[in-house]
Amino acid sequence: MALKIFKPTSPGRRGMTGYTFEEITARKPEKSLLLPLKKKAGRNAQGKVTVRHRGGGVKQMLRVIDYKRNKIDVAGNVETIEYDPNRTARIALIKYKDGVKKYIIAPLGLKVGDTIISGVNAEMKIGNTLPISKIIAGTVIHNIELQPGKGGQLVRGAGTGAMIVGRDGDFTIVRLPSGEMRKIRGECMATIGQIGNVEHQNINLGKAGRRRLMGWRPSVRGTAMSPRDHPHGGGSAKTPRGMPGPRTRWGKPAFGVKTRHNKITDPMIISHRK
Known about the structure:
By secondary structure, the protein is mainly beta. The protein is about 0% helix and about 25% strand.
């Protein structure tokens, strides 16, 4: 996929880049796989803001994605490659031999007319899904399960891919895109290949309006606030006074402090991300 560079007809257009959408083969999505998507604006069920700087944005319909890939030993053909406004990756519409249609995340190199299949005896081919214990070392994979039958939870963003490194008994050692090395149970499923739309990381929005259309609202620096609104506020100094490091607006340590503490999954991590 190539990037589209806009002419600098305005300050917002200067430096702006976008998609060419040359890999898209269908404009309208499959109606049977659409659901209404209600905006939450970063609020939970109690109406409290749990994710700041969210709100607005254009209306979107949710595409139902098949992360489980549980149509075992049923072949399916790729009918279309489509754009999904809810994710960075492209999606592929699969029509199985029994007539069922499902969306999957489109890996790099998957084309219209290709055949994919899931199962223990599936071929090592892009788009096929196998138990992670059956995939040979050095293979790039995505859509990785953490619990058998739950569906893929890891490596689902555009251009990402994990790699099989080795085995450890009933576990398979995987290197994730972050650089983390972790053990995953051998019966968990994973899909062969790297996710497409690899140029996504090179997109330059160019102006604030494109960010607002995506549902992101402006954020204000702590140093621009008053002392009552943020620990960094007040005074003419740029560095926080009276504290050893940066803080959130609630006074909690920020930038570099570990926030992930899971006693169940921590033993599975061999080496942490870079």
